[in-house]
Amino acid sequence: MNNANVAGHRQSATDPTAQVFLAYAAEDGCRAPGEAIAGPGGAEVVGELRQLLTQTQITYRQCPCPWPADADPEAIISRAAEACDNYVLVLSPYTLADVFCLQGLLFALSLNKRIVPVLIETVSAHHLPEPLQTLETVDLRDRSLPLTQTDGGRQLLQILHHAADYHHAHTQLLLRALEWERQRRHPDLLLEGDELDQYQRWLVQANGRSHHRPIQLQALYITESARHQASQGSAVALGMGWIRRWL
């Protein structure tokens, strides 16, 4: 994720997460330094989106543009999707042909992330990927005002702020579980104490939801953490019993 750009207030050197991953086609968001934007196009809207997120102190990541020669776009987008609370997909005709945007979308869906489609150009509904056809779309095609003064801009902020704590906890737990899995399930990476109690309560709440539920790895991570803590407690109790008998 070192190749992704960052803005906002909740980001820190020790916190790889962001509230938003802003995904858009290169044709909509990339331009050379100093290049003027001729008229209201995709790059203008993406720029306004960045400004809206920054002004409202919503942290975001986005793909580097252009991609560095040594970059691995699939890996960068996958890690960004893991570490975001919301996958905001900027929809235009270019997006539907952008393999990296669509790969990121499918990966975010597999993690049960909140997907927020943002429409900046007219796209035929039957051309949309099937997962997007049932999602609420934020319409940002009216660019006569700054986004903060449009219905679409206000709608986007309302979506991002709704249940924000839940989605942030989803991301934090997912990153912990993924690290545990990638480190061959090392017991030192398991949850314990108050943190385990907190995520056990979160899991009960999450399992009662119809959308953005925990994935299997998150549930397994909590289960294994509880089992490990119980076994450690049993070992301590057994050791204390031997000590009392010896005394």
TrEMBL record:
Instruction: Tell me the SUPFAM superfamilies matching this sequence.
Output: Toll/Interleukin receptor TIR domain
Alphabetized, the UniProt keywords read:
Receptor
Residue ranges constituting the TIR domain according to the UniProt record: 68-143
Q: What is the name of this protein?
A: Toll/interleukin-1 receptor domain-containing protein
Which InterPro entries does this entry report, sorted A to Z? TIR_dom, Toll_tir_struct_dom_sf
**Name of one Pfam family that matches:** TIR_2
Key word Iron-sulfur present: no
Is Zinc given among the entry's keywords?
A: no
